[in-house]
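Example record

The entry below shows one chain as it appears in the dataset: sequence first, then structure tokens.
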Amino acid sequence: MNINSLLSSVMGSTSSGVDKAVSKAKSGSMPGGLMGGAAAGGLAAMLLTNKKARKMGGKAIKYGGMAAVGGMAYKAWRNHKESQTTTQITNIEPNQSFGSSTTPAVPAGSIFDLAEEKPTQQVENMRLILIRAMISAAKADGHIDTSEQTRIEQQIRDLGINAEEQRFLIEQLRADSDPITIARLSESEEQATEIYLVSMLAIDIDTTEERHYLDRLGDALHLPTDLRQSIEHEVKNAQTL
């Protein structure tokens, strides 16, 4: 299965976006990358209502695909770890400024290095998990009925990806939107951070169902409150860039 092809299909760009995301992420910028074309027909946009698809398109350009997702998740996780160390040393409340606004370069070869051209098997598996998490979160408000699902499945078949990749995406589309199932895919706090972050990117929290989904996901991932706040800060900060 070509994971890059799947990512491109979900996020609405061509596979060349991987190379652009890698080079621009290493230069410290926030590229258009893989998510840049979401509003033009990526599966992420298909899964959303028209209103949300328009907003997703705006977010996509700012977030910059897997390179930026990894950087944002790493920054949120690192800030959480640093606040823990500060609290242990000084016995004061963690600093809620969440650090600087600059997205740091992720450690090469780490679970956060999502845009690496030659990723480890662990990172490849993580990319698939993140696709599952995004699709599950995008369905959290329950707006996809039978006719809408049929339409999206046909669009998946028209994406130009192979049969195995089509089958994977359709299986995720047909699966229940279940934060507990998604949380069970995580094996570490670092992975949990990435799962929670991409889930936030895939939805616009404007319904009680979406807020409830994220709360249940965060609980099932065992994410501390300050880490959730740091993740949400990174997402909101990217929206205002």
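Notes for this example: The chain has twelve helices and no strands. The chain has one domain: 3-240.
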